[in-house]
Amino acid sequence: MSAMYKIHAINTLLCCLLTLSVTSVYSGEHPTETTGEDLAQVNTDDLTTKAKKLYKIDSHGNRLPDESHTWECVEDADTKLFWQKRDPSSALHGHDSYNWYQPEQTPSGQARTNPDLLGIDSSCYGYRADDPDSYCNTNAFTERVNQSNYCGYNDWRLPTADELLSLVDPTRSDLTDQSAIDVHYFPFKEHFAYWTNTVNDEGVVVTVIQDDILLNNSERNDRLLVRLVRGQSNAE
C-alpha cells in the first residue's frame, strides 16, 4: 500500500470519527450531551432539489432587491412564511437566548415552565426585574417583537418544528462545509439549538440544531436561541 493511499485512508477514518462524535447543545451555562438515540435527521426524501425562493423584506413588509445590503426579515415564497432575520447589530433581534415558556402549552402551576417560579435570568436585552414583559423567555420575547411591529406585522410567533425545518434548502443540505439554510438571507446564523413550539408525547419541547437535526432532550429552562415566524404555512 502506497504512503499516499495510507494517508488518504487515515484522513477518511478521522472524518468518520468526527462525524460520529457527541454533539453538545448550547444552554447558556452548560452543554447538554446528546446521543444517537436523541437525534433524528430530518427526512429529505420528499424535498425537491429546487433551490428555495427567498426575499429580503424591509421594515414595512415590502420586498427589496436581492442585492440589498440592509433588510429586516425574510419571506419564504415557497411556504408563504416570514422569518426573523436575527442580527447582532439589533438589540431586540440580536443573539440573546431564552427559556421556553408558552402559556398556551403550559399547565398552570408547573414550576419548570412558569417564569414567575423559575430563577430569573437577566441576560437578555431590556430585562427589568420588576417587569414580567421583559423576562428572558420565549413568550415575553415574542410579545416584545410584536409590540415593535416588526416588518410591519404584530403576529409573530414561535415556529413549529416542521416550519423551522422548512428553511432547509435542498440544494445546500448535503454540503457538509456549508449551512443548510441560505446565509445570503440569514447571514447571522448560529450553530446552537433553536426552540420550537412543538411538544412531543413525553412533554419534551422539540428543538432544532445545525439547521436540520431534531433534538428531544432539551429542558424548558435551558437557554436556547429563537427565530420567530409569522404567517400560515402551506408546506404541511
From TrEMBL:
Signal peptide: 1-27
Keyword Signal set for record: yes
Residue span(s) of domain Lcl C-terminal: 73-230
Name of one Pfam family that matches: Lcl_C
Record's keyword terms, sorted: Signal
The name this protein goes by in its record: Lcl C-terminal domain-containing protein
Highest classification ranks of the organism: Bacteria, Pseudomonadati, Pseudomonadota, Gammaproteobacteria, Thiotrichales
